[in-house]
Design brief:
The protein has 223 residues and is α/β, with parallel strands linked by helices. It is built from nine helices and five strands. Helix 1 packs parallel to helix 7. The longest helix has 25 residues.
Length: 223
Amino acid sequence: MKVVAITSSPKGKNSTTLRLVNAALEGAREAGAETEIVDVARKKINYCKGCVSCYAKGKCVQKDEYNKVAEKFFSADGVILSSPNYIDNVSAQLKTFLDRSANSIHEQMLDGKYGLTLTTSGGSEYENVLKVMNSFINRSGGLVVGSVGFSNAQGAQGMEEGVRKAREAGKDLVAAIKEKRSYPDQEAPIKEWRRRFEQTLKFNKERWTHNYQHWVEKGWIKE
């Protein structure tokens, strides 16, 4: 079992968010998973050009490090997305990765997989950051096991509690994967989105050739 975590803070090893990620991965390893961190702030990942060629080809045509990162991330059994709170949103580095991953939504590339989201902030408001990351996982077909946020305003004791919660969340992520846990409140809207998107896909089948064939192979659409 493999769990891959994306970190996205430009602060690198000095990132507070990284402390939560390391704790979550420690918990995942204790529960029996193999783990890996990918720091997208240290990768050459260009902005999305909106060319939608990924819908036709199944991968991005830009020549940078995105496809290698995406292959690791989307092939994992469990995923972790993390970001500091930058003006009530994810960091630019993570947003760039998410924008380049639009095809993961079309092809539901996290189908059957489970995710965890982590964030830190200077103030007390960080829920929207978690919401953005949770939405990406759900819209890609994955299920969110949990989320952990921490505010630096809580001080050292709050950080200690955040690290503890992240470690337990990492363990729970692995447990959910092993149990093939169900989350009906998340599964219902995913199912409804697929029902509606099927019509969009049929309309664009000649242009979005890889998307269409992927759905046929998954049994989500009948020719």
